[in-house]
From TrEMBL:
<dbReference type="Pfam" id="PF06491">
    <property type="entry name" value="Disulph_isomer"/>
</dbReference>
<comment type="similarity">
    <text>Belongs to the bacilliredoxin family.</text>
</comment>
<dbReference type="InterPro" id="IPR009474">
    <property type="entry name" value="BrxB/BrxA"/>
</dbReference>
<protein>
    <submittedName>
        <fullName>BrxA/BrxB family bacilliredoxin</fullName>
    </submittedName>
</protein>
Length: 144
């Protein structure tokens, strides 16, 4: 029995997707979904660029989950998956200028404008707790 590579990858990454959707983050899987969600979102919007890498698993996703326990939260919570939903990720990254593509990464926008961004290099050398604290500080600053 043969399984397609695409099916295999979908099965492999589903638990990584579930880590974020389980805590209330909505997946945006197409450029159209990104366009319908991000540019016209009123208030604050968190966008997590998910990834299969170890720093996403060990620091980014757990850090985001911890941050979402904070008493002040963004109005909208979204994720795109780099390397899997490529077109949606490319569309989301258009809103993260001037930052180059980075995965994983975490963006906070206010009324469609980027106000806080955590790049991969700021994830891979920090703990999940440090990332959660960074996000909680950004939530306090921009989401009130």
């Amino acid at each position: 029995m043969s399984m397609s590579f695409e099916r295999y990858m979908l099965d492999m990454v589903q638990p990584m997707r579930d880590e974020l959707t389980r805590v209330g983050i909505q997946e945006l899987r197409t450029p159209e979904e990104v366009e319908n969600a991000i540019p016209d979102a009123k208030g604050t919007t968190l966008v997590v660029v998910n990834s299969v890498c170890g720093c996403a698993a060990g620091m980014a996703r757990p850090g985001v989950a911890q941050a979402l326990q904070h008493d002040v939260l963004p109005d909208h919570l979204y994720t795109v998956f780099a390397g899997q939903d490529k077109e949606a990720t490319a569309k989301a990254r258009e809103y993260f200028a001037p930052y180059p593509p980075s995965s994983p990464s975490i963006a906070l926008l206010k009324d469609g404008e980027l106000v806080h961004f955590i790049e991969r290099h700021q994830i891979e050398n920090r703990s999940a707790g440090e990332i959660a604290a960074d996000l909680a500080d950004a939530f306090d600053r921009y989401c009130r």
